[in-house]
Amino acid sequence: MITAYVGLEVRRTLRDTSFVVFGIGMPVLMYLLFTNLGDGADAEWKAASMVAMAAYGALGAALSTGSGVAEDKGIGWLRQLRITPMTPRQVVVGRALTGSVTVLPAVAAVLAAGALVNDVRLGAWEWAAVALVLWLGALPFTLLGIGNGYRLTAQTTGVVNVACSIALSVVGGLWFPTGLFPHWLRSLSGFTPTRRFAEIGQSLAEGAVPGPGAVAVLAAWALLFGAYAVFSYRRSARTV
Predict the structure, then answer these.
(1) Which domain holds residue 10?
(2) What's the predicted TM-score (pTM) here?
(3) What is the 3-state secondary structure (H, E, C) of the chain?
(4) Which of 41, 157, 178, 191 is a good FRET partner for 166, with 20 to 30 A between their CA atoms?
């Protein structure tokens, strides 16, 4: 049953025009603009920016899962799910799996743009490792989006998710290199999940092993956002 539920939610998401345009098209457009304006960029920057923009696409796609949750809550779909044989855990896991699946097109589109348009060259294992890490590493943001969806109204969830996406992208260095930041902001960036998320992927793209600090920070945020999602779901059960 959970497989059918995930399939239904994935089809609903991919039929959403705004998701296709902003969740998949926008990161590709921003990547190509950032790396091809002016005198152009070197191969190293094109590869690093590719990973950062793929991370940005994954972030937006993951957060959008929460918007679907909030909309379902508003139309009574969550109430209907509670009278099906599915357990609450299965519903939450199904939503998380949906977010994981819908992250893939956003990641794949940016990586394809890097390879086909910007001529980024990586080894076969590096492409596979970067794609896998960006896919699995988006889980904390899926949990954040789900938590917002269960906790807030549909309209508020959309606003909060956009704010989270912009703030985490800018401070995390997904749009601009952290080397351009003032010292205090560069230090703050190191504690953000987006900085560490992109850093893991960029390390693999360079053929290096990600540092344990980056993995630890991202794991800590995953636990925090997971606890937030569970708390939000429990609160929503009292009113929905």
Answers:
(1) 2-237
(2) 0.86
(3) CHHHHHHHHHHHHHCCHHHHHHHHHHHHHHHHHHHHCCCCCCHHHHHHHHHHHHHHHHHHHHHHHHHHHHHHHHHCHHHHHCCCCCCHHHHHHHHHHHHHHHHHHHHHHHHHHHHHCCCCCCCHHHHHHHHHHHHHCCHHHHHHHHHHHHHCCHHHHHHHHHHHHHHHHHHCCCCCCHHHCCHHHHHHHCCCHHHHHHHHHHHHHCCCCCCHHHHHHHHHHHHHHHHHHHHHHHHHHCCC
(4) 41
